[in-house]
Amino acid sequence: MELITRKAFLKTIIGITGSFLAYLFYKSLKINDHIVSSNRVQSVIKNDFPEGFSFINDIILVKKNQKIEIFSDKCTHLGCKINKSSGTELVCSCHGSKFSDNGQVISGPALKNLKKISFQLDNLRNVIILNNEA
Questions:
Q1: DSSP structure class, residue 41
Q2: What is the DSSP string of 60-114?
Q3: pTM of the model
Q4: What is residue 49's DSSP assignment?
Q5: What's the pLDDT tens digit per position in 61-119?
Q6: I want to staple 71 with a disulfide (CB 3.0 to 4.6 A). Which of 1, 34, 44, 114 is the partner?
Q7: Angle at Cα 76 formed by Cα 88 and Cα 58, nearest 5°?
Q8: Region class of 66: left (phi > 0), else alpha (psi between -120 and 50), else beta
Q9: CA angle 69, 72, 77 (to 5 degrees)
């Protein structure tokens, strides 16, 4: 059985750790999912969502009668992530604010409507292109 030197062991550990960190950094950029141009970030997502609410990354997609609206998933009360619905309402898990399927406040403590995200439909590629300020 061959023993490994301390120096070789440390080089191996540093190499593995560096590779793992580089991989995590690459994944965080989402190079395949985003196109960066000037001061706007355009996210491209496949348009294959069912009717109702879909929670994707940091957005809420609402599809009703083939009409699409997209909102930020941040509650306008204290910025908690909204990730659940009840019937036709979005519900903030933190403090119970409720929003309609068109982003309007139904009950507080939130006072402002959800932030709308602008987008374009690309029917040729069957994708939705989100326009987010960088």
A1: E
A2: EEEEETTEEEEEESB-TTT-PBP-EEETTEEE-TTT--EEETTS-EEESS--SPP
A3: 0.61
A4: P
A5: 888 888 888 888 888 888 888 888 888 888 888 888 999 888 888 887 888 999 988 88
A6: 114
A7: 75
A8: left
A9: 125
